[in-house]
Write a structure and sequence with these properties.
The complex is a heterodimer. By secondary structure, chain A is mainly alpha-helical. Chain A has a two-stranded parallel sheet with strand order 1-2. Chain A is flat, with a radius of gyration of 17 Å. Chain A has eight helices and two strands. Chain B is 39% helix and 16% strand. Chain B contains six helices and eight strands, in the order βαβαββαβααβββα. In chain B, strands 1, 2, 3, 4, 5 and 8 form a six-stranded parallel beta sheet that branches. In chain B, α1 (17-26) crosses α2, α2 runs parallel beside α3 and α3 (69-82) crosses α5 (110-130). The radius of gyration of chain B is 16 Å and the shape is globular. Classes of the chains: A mainly alpha, B alpha/beta. At the A-B interface, α1, α7, β2 and α8 of A face β1, α1, β8 and α6 of B. β2 (134-138) of chain A pairs parallel with β1 of chain B, so a sheet runs across the interface.
């Protein structure tokens, strides 16, 4: 079960899998015997406006999460080693409102799949297909959009 | 690919869990991941399982070290039994400051302790499932007393699945 901060496909492929496999080998098992749940951050919603809202919320959350040193490995792997220490300094200064601006668009899009419900299933399959057994999605803030999310879930579970 | 619903608001009042879990089930999610921040994740899990029929419910993650493995073994057994096998136990170590300062429990090296924790759970469950004597010893936890009065009945379903949170190298290897 991964942490949302460290669920980038490259991190899964280059770090999580080799270490899971290492541990499994020591017990005479292999990855096939494990269920891997990726706690994914996904910016999605009924339309582009909803996706933009999700992006802004997640940018705040990522800024907060990556102020914690233990979650820096993905930033370092992806080539943003200065982001974590910068966020830590901001946290120590109590300037929480400055955190989101440290997460630039390039970094955000390296960490978070983004697309409306109509397009998100193939995006998630491209990011995570074959790498994990399960991903996570948030429930819509408006229950009226549940059927649209249900259609996404149906596509993913059929894949 | 399976799809779990994450609880967006970890502060969700417990009286809203029923509706949330039922919505997730209607959306055909595989399961629901239950966080642990201001609620006991086993209480939240109980509500979600009680009001659904197919949804899996997995703690994501329950804090291990402030609780004796025996306490977690009982909670997990109950949830698995009452739901017909729909519960999954996700366990996490948290960090030193929270374990000592927030929970007033001792902090020791988390990876070997978690290894002993999981082995303890398996030993306790084995004892209950097979009516065997409980005799488990490890550097972190030891269990050697389980009178029949305190042993729950065997499960009619599979034993609970255990998940570990994986971020750093050694905990990820332990998860494997």
């Amino acid at each position: 079960m991964t942490h949302p901060s460290n669920t980038n496909p490259r991190y899964l492929r280059e770090f999580i899998h080799p270490n899971l496999a290492h541990g499994a080998r020591r017990c005479g098992r292999d990855l096939a015997g494990l269920e891997r749940i990726a706690s994914t951050f996904v910016a999605t919603g009924i339309d582009d406006e909803s996706v933009a809202r999700e992006r802004q919320q997640l940018r705040h959350y990522l800024g907060f999460v990556f102020s914690t040193r233990q979650y820096w490995p993905t930033l370092e792997l992806l080539g943003w080693p200065d982001v974590g220490p910068t966020l830590l300094e901001i946290a120590r200064a109590g300037q929480w409102e400055k955190m989101p601006e440290v997460i630039g668009d390039d970094l955000f899009e390296a960490l978070v799949p983004c697309a409306p419900y109509a397009d998100i299933a193939p995006v998630l399959l491209e990011w995570y297909g074959g790498l994990v057994d399960a991903v996570t999605l948030r429930m819509p803030s408006d229950p009226a959009n549940d059927p649209d999310l249900a259609a996404v879930i149906e596509q993913l579970r059929a894949a | 690919m399976q799809v779990y619903a994450s609880v967006e608001d970890p502060r969700m009042p417990l009286d809203q869990v029923q509706d949330f879990a039922q919505r997730a089930e209607r959306c055909r999610f595989t399961g629901l991941l239950i966080p642990e921040s201001i609620h006991d994740s086993f209480m939240t899990s109980l509500l979600a399982l009680e009001h659904t029929t197919e949804l899996r419910v997995v703690t994501s993650v329950a804090l291990a070290f402030p609780r004796s493995p025996m306490i977690v073994a009982y909670s997990t057994w109950d949830l698995q039994a009452m739901s017909g096998g729909r519960f999954g136990l996700g366990l996490g170590s948290q960090v030193k400051g929270n374990i000592t300062g927030r929970f007033s429990t001792a902090w020791t090296a988390p990876v070997p302790r978690m290894r002993d924790y999981v082995a303890s759970l398996r030993a306790i469950w084995h004892s209950w499932q097979h009516g065997a004597a409980l005799d488990f010893e490890s550097p972190s936890y030891s269990f050697d007393r389980m009178q029949p009065f305190f042993a729950p009945d065997p499960l009619d379903c599979a034993l609970p699945q255990i998940f570990l949170g994986g971020v750093n190298r050694n905990m990820t290897r332990l998860a494997g």
